[in-house]
Every structure is written in structure tokens, then in C-alpha cells.
Amino acid sequence: MLVLGVLEVGLRLAGYGHRTSFFVPLDDGRMLASNRCFGWQFMPRQTATQPYPLVITAQKPAGQARIFILGESAAQGAPSPAFGFSRILEVMLSQQFPDWRFEVVNVAMRGINSHAVLPIARECARLGPDLCLVYLGNNETISIHAPDPERLNLTPYLGLLRFTQWMKGARLVQLGDRLVRALQAAPPRRSGQDMDFFRRKRLAADDPRRQAVYDNFRANLEEICRAIRASGAPVIVSTVAVNLSDFPPLASLHRTGLAPAELAAWQSAFAQGANAEAEGRLADALARHREAVRVDGHFAELHFRLARCELAAGQREAAAEHFSLARDWDALQFRADRRINQIIRDTAASRRDPGVILLDAERSFAQAAGPDAGGPGNRFFHEHVHLNFEGDYLLARLFFPLVARALNLASSPPPAGEPPPIPSRQECADALAFTEWDEIGVAAAMARLTAGPPFLDQIEHASRQARVEQELERRGQRFQQTGGFPRVVAVYRSATARRPEDWQLRFNFGSLLRDFGDKAGASSEIALAIRFMPVYPALHLVMARALEDQGRHGEAIQQYQLALRVDPDCAPAKAALSRSAGRGPP
């Protein structure tokens, strides 16, 4: 142990290895940035996701309310965090309480779950939070430390999982991992997550291995609340809303022990019900689907088909229940199910602490969808869990009064008369420059996502995808025909005038200008984005390409080098510099 300890200290003093904390110090340590290596302790290095770039002061500035957002991609605001609910909430707070200064720090991250959120929460608790918001629960069954049908199941051993997670921060472990990779005959290939991969990951809702998922989520969520409350800050935990009525299950499995005769009866009823539904014979479809449910009520797609028919027949309560069952029995559980949401409610109630506040977003979204919808759908979601701007705006409005109460903002008298009304959806969109062009861009990003795995096995996927892509093409043509570019530029100029140091606004504006051929304007805006967010490699890459558009190859090379300084593994920068070396000096 002494020898190992000396080696560990020696490696650290020599600067070997990487930090596994979420935040890393910059320069003199007064500033902190998100750590691109954070995910390596949870996921294979070649497939690990990275935190969204952020820079904050290590010491919270006086007179500033610091609010942390904890969660996964839905909380982050994927596919475009610049328009996520945390940004909308910040606009609402700033306009409603102009005498306050708010710092909304979104530490949510794609591809993680509560196992990774817990250490992030512990770090945030040491950085002077005034409030933390937790919107978490979609990835518990399919992400980090989830049961794997193809491997030894370690999910029930939470202590062991946490220990192995902690060990990956040791420089000796990192050195051993590097040696193993160096001795391999070929570098490890990026694991292809094709449909075969996802089909092998299917897990029934009643599989005994799922119980450990819920036990771990409960333990992690309680630890998250405990860590935040130990800092003195209140925490708002929210149930998770998902797309029920417009998102078919990703995978379906039959119940265990289904006899051959029962399976044959089920297949007959299911096929007859599907045919009747396609031909518009609603009564026959309902009868056949219900017959199939009596034989095997575990098949997720069946519940979704039955719910659609019940909704068409005006049986709204039954439809809502079967849409929920279609989610719960989905064998690729990328959506928070009712057990996850109940754990969130129970955790908030069991602590009996006024500093742990519950937001029941699941119920609020169901109410906002209205009684005729059968549950939340495409009005609020891009696909299964990621909110569109309408959904993000609703979530921000739901959080807003709880945030005001938790920070005692409501008790502060307005400077003159009544406070201004909460900004409307359009006012928030204008403040963040969420224009018609950005709306098309976000929708196009989601269309690219849903065109591949794990969405390909959904019923009617091909026709639904074709409709989405055709609509995107129509919207793009309409934007060009109506001269949308000047309108969008005007919105951006107004937004950047009000928020001149907002790097995300500058980045999006620069990307817009480059798309429409304004090369000089693009490089000017992206240069400002880099000034306010120098640790984001993507900004340097876009800047380099904007400079190459203008024939400024030497300056472009400098930007590629800066990208590599921030991220030594940045493959696009490496490739660009390799091409430049091959061409020789300009």
C-alpha cells in the first residue's frame, strides 16, 4: 500500500492523468470550467459524452443568486441548450426581478443518469449555491450502471459501483488503462449502436433486474438532496414529463411463460386489430386489441394501439392509462416511467424538509395537454423526452413560482408598483433569438436523430419520418421565399444588444451569418463568442472554417491549434492540421 501510495502521489506531482471532477480550475484557480474528461469514469472513453461548456467563478460573486440545474439531456436542453428551459427561466427571473442578479448554471449532461448526477451535485454544493433544480429520471434503465442482458449484472451492488467509479480517478488506474490500450493489436473501435445493439439491450418492465434500477435511483436521489441541503441551499426536485400520445414504444416483449397456444391466439387478435385500425373499423379494432390484452398485457405496442383507438372513440381516461402503460412496458426504457416518478414524489415527501420542494411536472404537462389529448405529445416534445421550445417554456413557467418562493424573491417589494408580468413565450424567444430559422435548425437536428437507431423499430416509423422531412423541406422553402433572413437578423441584433456577453447568442448569430454568406460578419460574431467562452473547441472550429472561407488560412490554423489546446483529442482539428501540413505553406 505504501508503494502504491508513493506511485500515485508521484504520478499526480508529475501531472500525469486527468481529473475526474466535473469542474476543473482555469489558470489561477479563480475560474472553473466544465471538465471534458468527466464522463470517462462512467462510459468508454471513445463513446463518452462531454459536459456543455461553462465557466463560473470559484467564489460566488456577492449579491448574485446562483442556481444550478441538474439532470440529463432533457434538462440540458438538447439538441440546442441555448434555447433550453434553464435559459428561459433566467430570462423570466431577470425581467421579473430586475434588481437581482441571477446566475443559472446548467450542469446537466447528455447520456448520464443519477449515478453521474450525484458527484456533480456534491461539487455544486461546495460552490455557494442559492438553489438547485433537479430534473432527472429518463436514463436510469438504459445508461450508466444499468442492467445489461449480455453481461454480469452488477446493478444491485451500489457500493461496488460507486467504488469502481471512484477508483477511476486514481492515476495508477488511468496508467494501467493506458497500458492495456497500448498493448492492444488495434485501437478499440467505437461501439456501433445499431438496431441489433439496441435489440440486445431490451429488458421487460417486470424483469427482476429492473428492481435494482429503482433502488439505486432512490438512493442516489436521496443523496443528491442530502448533499444540496447540507450546503444550506433549498432544492426543487421535479417529476419528469415525457411524450405519451405521439411516441410509440421503442421495443416490445411478450410476457414470460406465454404458451404456444396463447401466443398464436394473441398474434391472431393483434393482427386483426391492426388491420381493423388501418381500415378505420374502430369498434372491431377495439374489440380485437382488448382481446389481445387479456392474453398478454405486457406487449407495449399493443397498449399504444389500443390507446389510439380509445382516444378516437372518446374514451379519454382509458386512452390516457394505456398510453402510460405503453411507456411503462417499453422494453427500451428511455422515458421515465411511473415508478421513477413515484420515487421522486416519495423522496420529496419522505424528507419532511421545507427545503426540499416538489414540482410535479408530469401531472402539470398532462393538464396542459388537455383532456382530449390522452397525454402530452408533439405539442411539447420533439420525440420521446426532449422538449421543444413550447415544452421548455412550460417547464420554466412551472419552476418559476417555486424558484421565486425558494429564494424569497416574492417577499421583496418591487421598486415601483406591481412587478412586470412573466415574459410571454414570444418575449422569451426574442430574448434568446429563437427565430424561425433556429426552429427549423433544431427540428432538422431531431429529424437526423430519429432517422436512425433506436427509433427504427417503432410502428409507422418510415411514414412518420418521411412526413417530418417533407415538412422541414417546405418550411425551409417558405423561409427563403418570404425573405426570412432580414427578419431573423433583426431579432439577433436586438437580442445581442440586450445580452452583449451571451456567447451562445453570438455563436448562433455567427453560424447564421456564415450560412447565408456573410463571412466577415460571421467571423466577427464568433470571435466575440470565443472571447466570452474560450474553452469550447467547437467555437474555434467554426471560427477556423469562417476564416478559411475568407482565405485567411494562417489564422485558421491558429484556431485549430487553439481547439487542440482545449481538447487534445479533437479529431476535426487534428484532421484539418494534417491537411494543412500536406498542402504546405499558403
Can you walk me through this structure?
By secondary structure, the protein is α/β, with parallel strands linked by helices. It folds into 3 domains: about 1-185 and about 190-245 and about 335-425, SGNH hydrolase (Rossmann fold), CATH 3.40.50; about 260-330, Tetratricopeptide repeat domain (Serine Threonine Protein Phosphatase 5, Tetratricopeptide repeat); about 450-585, Tetratricopeptide repeat domain (Serine Threonine Protein Phosphatase 5, Tetratricopeptide repeat), CATH 1.25.40.10. The chain has 24 helices and 8 strands. A 5-stranded parallel β-sheet has the order 5-4-6-7-8, with helices on both faces. Strands 1-2-3 form a 3-stranded antiparallel β-sheet, with no helix packed on it. Helix 21 (about 520-530) packs antiparallel against helix 22. The chain starts with a helix and ends with a helix. The mean pLDDT is about 95.
